[in-house]
Model the fold of this input.
Amino acid sequence: MKRFKLILRRLLFPGTAVALGSVPVAAALLLYVFLADGSKTPVAYLAYAFSAWSLTVVCTSLLPAVGRGGGLVKQNRYVRRYLTDIPFKTKVTLYGSLGVNVLYAGLKLASGIYYGSVWFITLAVYYGFLAVLRFLLLRHVNRNTVGNNLLSEWKRNRLCGLLLILMNIALGGMTVLVIRQNRSFEYAGYLIYVMALYAFYAVITAVINLIKYRKLGSPVLSAAKTISLAAALVSMLALETAMLTQFGGADDMAFRHVMTAATGAAVCLAVLGMAVYMVMKSTKELNRLKHGAPGTGACPLKQPR
Done:
């Protein structure tokens, strides 16, 4: 295990020089694939894998610099409260993500009705589910102190799990439409590279936060981070469809279908697995609490490290 961790650390943190040096190599490989070699060759798979690794190590190399600069930012009392007050941080995050989800769902629904597009309506349903999930959690944290009412929190956690299962139907519909109707997410110009950075950042952050906040013992916080991870996984699927559309050719349709189907199925199964676990875990804990088992008291909330 120690050897594996050492190898993983060297892969993710190879040093600033190696990280920056990988960028031109990744760019050269991608240019060669797009301009000369084609997207179905072994070199293409190598280029995609190397580019993903390069983007990851560049992001990890920036973390120390961000940490040093963060010391000055933390002196601001609002920033300090956001970083140290878990309920406040949860509310701010939920308000922001809820606003974005509602706006995006509304725009997609209006576009779907105006253009008669099943694709836009499916996207509206997906983002509508995300908005409902985050609204339910936000309503709870506004009415209750996080970690003090486990019975209520486990009920909310189970409800979110059930809604995630329903949301997975919309997610499956998105994948089917991408394959059968050649639909995809589209980002203009260099925006696709910004979205690539966001997608990798979202997944890495969501995984870290899910592990951190799970240790606090608050079902509502765990549900919030699980929902964030589900949304981050979908952003990776969206990024893949956009990259295949923008950089692939007309003769790559079969390859695009296979890649989209494989990734879409993996994301759907991952979201479904998380949802089923939430429902089963919540039901088990609710039965334990209702029968007066030990440990039914309030959950002391601590700052995650």
About this structure: Confidence is low (pLDDT under 50) at residues 295-300. The two ends are 22 Å apart (CA to CA). Residues 3 and 9 are 10 Å apart (CA to CA).
